[in-house]
Each structure stands twice: as structure tokens, then as C-alpha cells.
Amino acid sequence: MLQNTRALRRAAAAASARSTVTARRPILMFAAAGAALLGITVTVGFASAPAVGAENMISAVTELAGPEPLAKVADEASTSLIAAHAAVDAAIQLNADVVLSGLDLGESVTSIETGELHHDINALDERAVMPGMLLTVLTADTEKTTAAVVAETATLQAALTAAQEKKAADDAAKAAAEQAAAQAAAAAAALAAVNTPDGARAAARDMAASRYGWGDDQFQCLNSLWNKESSWNYQAYNPSGATGIPQALPGSKMASAGGDWATNAATQIAWGLGYISSVYGTPCSAWGHSQATNWY
């Protein structure tokens, strides 16, 4: 009777551990119940020989655990439990990362369900009172569920990484577009400024000094010359075909200084200063010729 009582206690403890997995694994309950009944039967059958009965009980439990020793089964269960905890932690962290990112992952799964793996973890926490065969089956099932969670985590991580890379590319493209727009706006503002008579004079003064070393005395001659020719109007046009601030004849000559010669006073000035330098040497010489002949 004493041995029967102990066996029943062990069966009850095993049934308690199994209760956490019976909802989705009914076959395990039948296996565990069979294991418990076999333990009772072996004990009763050898009640008259306690020593022999104890040895046979150990043998029966070992058989239920499978070909591997119970210690190895327990080690594998512990290893599976560690891996399961790591998988759950990684999934929870990734779920939080996805929420914090605020990114649209498209049609991808946006979170990982870990409830089933939590269920397995809770069951394995009772492994100390679990029959060997049940522990072996539960360990295998936990490993399978862990692998599924790990795979889902990898898939979701790839989707998040792709979304992050897309956002970075979009942000870079937006920044580049904004920079290009800012540069275009600055260029337009600069063009608008230089295309006024005062802006053209300022540009000519700077260009004459930086490119040819001409000081204010030469600029005064240049100012007088181009006041006479065009009043510093980049759109000035003479029926003879003379065009722009320097009154190039024909105006297309100024293309050597830039393709925008017809719309940019700075391009016209660059061509005009080069012409004066090559033909007259200085603006004052060109101005003197203009006064004498009414052209330069």
C-alpha cells in the first residue's frame, strides 16, 4: 500500500504539470496517464519484493523517457527553455521597435505572437515533476514553437530594416531636393540682382579688379563707356544688331563667355571685359576711342 500511495502521488504531480499543455496537446495527457498507470502497475506487481520492485520502477521510468537517460532529457529541456526565453525577449523587443519606428511595413506582419511559446515555457517550468516521456515530447514541441517565433522575428526584422532603409533614402532624396531648390532659388536671386543696372555695375567692378587688376580709375571709364552704349541694360538691343550691356555685334559673339549670354548680365560683362582687354588694353583706352569715333 505504501508503494501504491507513493506512485499515486507521483502520478498526481505529473498530472498537475501536464495540465498546462492539455488544452492544445490532448495526446500528451493520454501518454502521461499511461506512464503513471504503468508506474502503479509495476509497483503493485512487485510489492512482495521491494528491492526488485524499486529497480524495475527505475527501469520503467527510464523506458518512458526513451532511449536517452533522464539526465540528458532534463538538460535538453533546460537548453530549450533558455532558447525559448531568448526568442520571446527578442520578439518582444522587436515588437516595441516596430511600434516606436512608426513606419509603414506594408502588408507584412507587424508584430509577433508569443503566447503559445509563453505557454510552453510555463509548462517546462514544471519539468522537475514531469514524467520523462512527457518532458521529451514537451521539449520537442517547445523547440518547434521557438523555431517558428525565431523565423517570424527574422522576417519582421527584415521588413523593419527595409522600411528604415526606404525612409533613409526618401529622407536623403528630400534633403537633396530641398538643397537643389535652395541653390536654384539662390541662383535666381543672384541673377535677378546682377540683371539690374546697379547689380551689373557691382559685378563689373569686382570682375575688373579680380580678373584684370583694374582699379576705380579704370572702372570710371568703363562705367562711362557702357552708360553710353546700353545704360547697363542687359536687354539693350540696337537695330544694327548690337546686343546687351557691351553692345556686342552680333550678340551671339557673347556665347563664348556662356550659353546664357542673352539672359545673364554677368556673362555679358565677362565677354565685354575680355573684348576690351584684347582690343584696347584698358577700359580708359576703349572709352577714349569711343569718344573720338562714337564706337569702340
Automatic annotation (TrEMBL):
| Transmembrane feature ranges | 27-49
UniProt KW keywords: Membrane, Transmembrane, Transmembrane helix
Q: Which InterPro entries match?
A: Lysozyme-like_dom_sf
Protein name from the UniProt record? Phospholipase
Q: Which organism is it from?
A: Microbacterium natoriense
